[in-house]
Amino acid sequence: MIVPPSCLLNTIDFIGKVWNLKNFSYLCAQKANEEVMSLGQRDSVTPSAFFHDVTLTLMVTLMLQSGYSQVAFAEFMHSEASKSFSIDLTDASLVECLTAKINFKARLFPHYPKSHQCLMSHLHLIEQELDCVILPSQVGDVFYSFFISRLLSRGVKPSSIETLCYQLRSCLEWSAKHGAKINDTYGEFFVPTYRRPTIALTPDEVSLIYHLNLQPLVKRKDHRSLLEKAKDMFVLSCNLGQRHSDMLRIQRKNFDRNIFTIVQQKTEHKAVVDIDKFSIDKKTTYAILEKYDYTAPYKATIGCYNVKVHELMKLAGLTEEVLLETKILDEIQEEVFPKYKLIASHTARRTFISANVFRGIPEYLIRKASGHSDSRSFTKYICENID
Questions:
Q1: DSSP single-letter state for residue 4
Q2: How many Å apart are CA 197 and CA 190, to the nearest integer?
Q3: Fewest CB atoms less than 10 Å from the CB: which of 53, 193, 301, 309?
Q4: Which residues pair with 338 in a beta bridge?
């Protein structure tokens, strides 16, 4: 999605105040993005220029439709007289740079601050522990080595550490455009790889879980009822292929006969699933949907849900041992875990993708159903163990 240039932020704020359009910048970005995509690769295009043209066009249209307000314009002229049209981060600390970027991006992407909370927290903790202020120019290979070692020692997963480092690098690149001084090695970091088997279930295993009779296995009726709902939630997720956060949000309006459509919470991508074509077992899928009136079978936090999933997998007999390899520099550490401990909510999404890949469905069609925008992230979900 195209991001508006900083000189347009005051324009967007003015429009939002006068016409109460909180999503105006997002509408402009969508329109500008469509314009750029329509040109394809025929021309050299400047996204910010398109954004500017679209913004001005929509603003004039709004004025004509709702009536020009001289009072509102006068307020705008007085309030903006003291504001700067640029962002100056010449003397800003790293935390101040990150805060500026978050505030800038949040005007277009409301979920952006939440995605950077973890990075901000770690930076604050480092400053508190070392009693210092981190400057953008200090973030280089030495800083990354300390940062990564610190996170590993606290049990943060390498994949999460890599995300934090990429966020930090992106922040520095953005800050440099606004005057911040950055280190020559601002993008040089190495995160030790963590080779963990990606677990996916076979269609037979999904069927085994669905038909698992919990009555003789779980005595407490209330606990058995929760496990039954968690079981249906997991099986439904295997058949729809969505993240837990999106499965919690499903409603009858998301379904049009055999077509399931949802705008994903994490990425805001639109996923479209043809149940008859993509589900592992369409009969089971429709049975669960009807049972819960086309809503989520089990509404709980992902932590509570995963506890139930582990218990279900153990009851289903998925207890074979799986070898995990962790590579830190040149050293490989091996650990053995029972399979059920490696199965969680996201396993259902891997199962959906892997099953459809090995059924011979083209990748671009599966990505439309899973909501993946690129092959790189998509291929990480393909598990060869179900072939």
A1: P
A2: 21
A3: 301
A4: 321
Residue 22 has pLDDT above 50, yes or no: no
Helix %, strand %, coil % for the chain, to 5?
Answer: 60, 10, 35
Superfamily of segment(s) 203-386 = Intergrase catalytic core (1.10.443.10)
What DSSP character marks residue 374? S
pTM: 0.56
**Residue found by looking up tokens 């790293």 in the block:** 94
The residue type of 263 is V
Interacting residues of 6 by C-beta distance below 8 A, sequence separation 6+: 85, 86, 87, 104, 178
Give the pair of three-digit tokens for residue 266. 């994490």
Pair of tokens at residue 283: 């009969």
Say if residue 114 is exposed, middle or buried (CB neighbours under 10 Å; 0-12, 13-18, 19+): exposed
Q: How confident is the model at residue 308 (pLDDT cuts 50, 70, 90)?
A: very high
pLDDT in tens, 311-330: 999 999 999 988 877 665 55
Alpha carbon 164 to chain centroid, angstroms: 13
